[in-house]
Amino acid sequence: MPLLRSARFPAVLLLAAAAAGLLLANSPLGDAAFAVQGAHLGIPGTPLDLSVGHWISDGLLAVFFFTVSVELQYELTQGELADKRRAVQPAIAAAGGVLVPIAVYLAVVAASGQSGQAAGWPIPTATDVAFALGVLAVFGRGLPSGVRVFLLALAILDDIIGIVFIAVLFADGVQAGWLLGALLAAAAVAVLTRARDDRMTVGVWAVVVVLSVATWVFVLASGVHATIAGVLLGLAMAQLPALRARHMLEPAVNGLILPLFALSAALVVIPAVGGALSASFWAVTLALPVGKLIGIVGGGLLAQRLFGGGSDRLSFGDFAAAGALGGIGFTVSLLLAGLAFAGDAAVRDHATLGVLAGSAIALVASSALVAWRAAYHRRLKATAA
């Protein structure tokens, strides 16, 4: 259990699951894997008639978004983002880390003449918190706490932007009645958990679970992507019960939900891509490691110049390490790739491969940069001593 709460092991597990998915899809067992992924489970004629793949991306991943939103709620109220002045620097860096990759993606697509693939511009905007913190834990011994704080705040702000993109861009024929039902169910969770707060009995938790499942079903039926239910609940629930729920769910999220999603999302048959790779592949592959690095470093340096860094002032090398880590898109980028090109399986596969390739490049680059900066700071400490 402690292993699944660490920063290192979940990142390794996630990478192994993605590699397994890619290998499985291109092995003799590939057809069987796709058959399982496409098999429908549920009640026909209801919103609960989903394929196994959609149960993972729409259902299980909502639990992951719940845990992210609980962390976001904490950071906004008591953590690194509670001090608005301190949050300005990572906020501007996050903006740069979103806008520059979008510009890189659109530039590559425009240069290729495949303008129909411009819809994938949200894909390279995400940062995978688990992976980034995993690399930091493995290679970052000796880095000042300011670098980790900056990266954590940056990744959380990235999550906010990704959540907004999913909610606004990928809603499909929103039905207000179902959405209102979801909001009312989430509001009931908010009221109940605040009324009980630190007196949450088993019976109260049972009611909260039922209301949470109802919220998810209503969001699914509304046409808004179902993972938004996790966001609603994570922000609505009272902080103390929410943190307890997050702590309880963390091993399942790290050890089962995220690896299952990575395995399912990476089920891409490479030969099916055929001949030349499309613009979406090259655009994502370039925008994640390069666009993120330029955007985050540029935004961070600009913010530090405008507002100062105080005692947490970072150097160019520290920003570069954080920027390279920001290019590990992975989980949310894979989800965005599936949503952006849901109607075109071939382009979706190209974009998925781009996420895997771009994140792998960023993973290698960030590991080297983080190790270099950590060694530099260890030498500084030794000299000062």
From TrEMBL:
GO cellular component, one term: plasma membrane
Keywords recorded for this protein, A-Z: Antiport, Cell membrane, Ion transport, Membrane, Signal, Sodium, Sodium transport, Transmembrane, Transmembrane helix, Transport
Database matches in InterPro entries: Na/H_antiporter_dom_sf (IPR023171), NhaA (IPR004670)
Cell compartment(s), UniProt: Cell inner membrane; Cell membrane
Name of the protein: Na(+)/H(+) antiporter NhaA
Gene3D superfamilies: Na+/H+ antiporter like domain
Signal peptide: 1-25
Entry keyword annotation includes Ion transport: yes
Membrane-protein topology: Multi-pass membrane protein
Single annotated GO MF: sodium:proton antiporter activity
Transmembrane segments: 52-70, 91-113, 119-139, 151-170, 176-195, 202-219, 255-274, 280-307, 319-341, 353-372
Naturally occurring in which organism (per UniProt): Microbacterium saccharophilum
Purpose of the protein: Na(+)/H(+) antiporter that extrudes sodium in exchange for external protons.
Similarity comment text for this entry: Belongs to the NhaA Na(+)/H(+) (TC 2.A.33) antiporter family.
A GO BP entry: regulation of pH
